[in-house]
Amino acid sequence: MKRILHWLIPLLAFLLIFVECVSSLSSEKDFALFGKIPVQVGGRVKPLDTVARNSLLIIHGRGTVQLDNGTTLQATHWLADLLYKATEADHYPVFVIYNPDVLGLFGWQQTNRKFFSYEEISPFLKKIDDQSQLAEPVESVNRTPFQTAILNLRNAILLYQRLRSSLQPEGSEDFTSELEEYVRIIPAGIEAVRNHQKKEPMDQDALDEFSQFSERYEMMGDWAYISPVPPKKDHTGLHGDWLPVGKSLLESIASGQIHPVVEAYALIGTAYRSNDKPLFRQRVTDLYTWMNQHQPESAYRARYEYLFNVLNPFYESMQLYILVFLLVCGVWLGGAWSENLRTAAVNTLLLAFLIHTWGLGSRMWLQERPPVTNLYSSAIFIGWGSVIIGLILERIFKEGIGLACSAAIGFVTLIIAYHLSESGDTLEMLRAVLDTNIWLATHVVVITIGYSAMFFAGMLAMIYVIRGIFTTSLTKTSAKNLSHMIYGVICFATLFSFVGTVLGGIWADQSWGRFWGWDPKENGALMIVLWCAIILHARLAGKIREQGLVVMTLFGNVITSFSWFGVNMLGIGLHSYGFMNKAFPWLVGFVMSQLILMALAAIPFHHWRSFAPQNTPS
């Protein structure tokens, strides 16, 4: 029975994940095909499902919408309503307002309610815009909570308004009939324009009607958030510029024919507004089939990204990392089942690692880039790298420590990544400073591996202190093994941090004409290298022993967190990107926790529970 645990626990975990994934797929079935249709947003081709999820996270801060009647709308359902039933969607409570000063600006009292509809906010759009213009010139680090909140609300409203006008003009009740009228008026309108230019007699009514259509579609094209019309047939469509509906309609003046994709979206809207579900599915199928025939690569990638979104591998990995940590706690409690639980934890961690790896590889394939391109992907990669280090250490020492560190760092980094995803598309187009695959695959990956190793060493030090001071489980053998692990991982971190920093200097020399410029990000990387070198030299010279090694390694967490996140919050330097106001208190909290652990680690050993005289084995 004990040996069955080796595979029973990971198998049950896999079955639960499988059931959860099937349930997620079934819950999306009504809008699944609609969500798989490729469009272009922000220069990247993605499925409508991704547009819906990212937009709802930015506007609402959640992945679903809870209506007042208790109904829960999935992101794609919400987007379909916003695109085609805007008057209904305007009543959905999607805008987040909890700042009392913003509520006071509207004359509202602060209550437990924090979600409001566009219909409720729309009377105050002028006030929001005025306050935003006052707050925008203020540097992000100096903004008050009110200014930050009003800017976030303004940006959410702009995104909402742009989505409303992406596939049909605002207020259009029958876009299909409007397109028919537009095609009818084009010949007479063009003739009227030509006669007007030649100062010859013209049809004034035809000119006015044609001008109204042109102005309407020009405004729609400039304001649209989504570009759903792919490039010409001779292009793959993956990297070319797709057109908004409005601009496509203006281009159709020359041919007198509406692009089939524009017509398809109009027909989908007509069916959707009439609540004719079979006709809606048929219209969506027609457009989906067209995309597969004329834009096969874009359609294939959109299908894959839709599957990636629904299966959500990083969320599933998080759950498995929690399970691994709990199993390791069972191992440390001791008993006849300890070794079997440890083996089960190893197998479960391998399952989590495989799912994590699939998610990481999928992102690389979808983005056509190396694994680290932004703060979000760096968190994903740091967790992934930590799991590898933990598996190697567990293979050597077999005490569960490597498993515990892997599970803890994997879970925490994925939580960080989840919160970073709230800022928008995590597969966004690269900033100019990062737009080169060669250096992304060398400098950025190598330096991020250094981050992984430093955090792993820091986690080992945290386990050393917590187990030693608060429990009696840290034996002399375990303490010695932990110190060996810490020392070995720091050696690994030193190598990768140094090489990554040098590669970064070479990249800077090629991009900016100087190897080193004392940029905050460069200084942060140098601090890691120097601190690693100080630790190693102090240990080799006998200046520190196990206790000193633990204290200095804990401070390495502070330095690494500053290099990874802190320098972005300074708002200065060539590497200042990915700023998040709400991340600052978490960073401060983490630094404080490490300083507290350093103070605890400095307490003489004879005051530690594990090393107290009555607990020291003879």
Would you kindly provide a written description of the structure presented here, covering whatever features stand out?
The chain is an all-alpha fold. The protein folds into four domains: 1-36 and 312-429, Up-down Bundle (Four Helix Bundle (Hemerythrin (Met), subunit A)), CATH 1.20.120; 46-164, no CATH class; 187-223 and 227-295, no CATH class; 434-613, no CATH class. It has 24 helices and six strands. The protein has helices spanning 5-27, 32-36, 48-60, 75-84, 86-89, 100-105, 118-121, 125-135, 145-164, 175-197, 204-223, 245-255, 260-273, 277-294, 296-311, 313-332, 338-367, 375-397, 401-420, 437-470, 476-512, 520-540, 546-564, 583-601, and strands spanning 38-41, 44-47, 64-66, 72-74, 95-96, 115-116. The strands form three sheets. The chain has a two-stranded antiparallel sheet. A two-stranded antiparallel sheet has the order 3-4. The two termini are 36 Å apart. 43% of the residues are buried. The model has no long low-confidence stretch (mean pLDDT 87).
Layout of secondary structure:
Blueprint: H1 5-27, H2 32-36, E1 38-41, E2 44-47, H3 48-60, E3 64-66, E4 72-74, H4 75-84, H5 86-89, E5 95-96, H6 100-105, E6 115-116, H7 118-121, H8 125-135, H9 145-164, H10 175-197, H11 204-223, H12 245-255, H13 260-273, H14 277-294, H15 296-311, H16 313-332, H17 338-367, H18 375-397, H19 401-420, H20 437-470, H21 476-512, H22 520-540, H23 546-564, H24 583-601
Antiparallel strand pairs: 1-2, 3-4, 5-6
Helix pairs in contact: 1-17, 3-4, 3-9, 8-9, 10-11, 11-12, 13-14, 14-15, 16-17, 16-19, 17-18, 18-19, 18-20, 19-20, 20-21, 20-23, 20-24, 21-22, 21-23, 22-23, 23-24
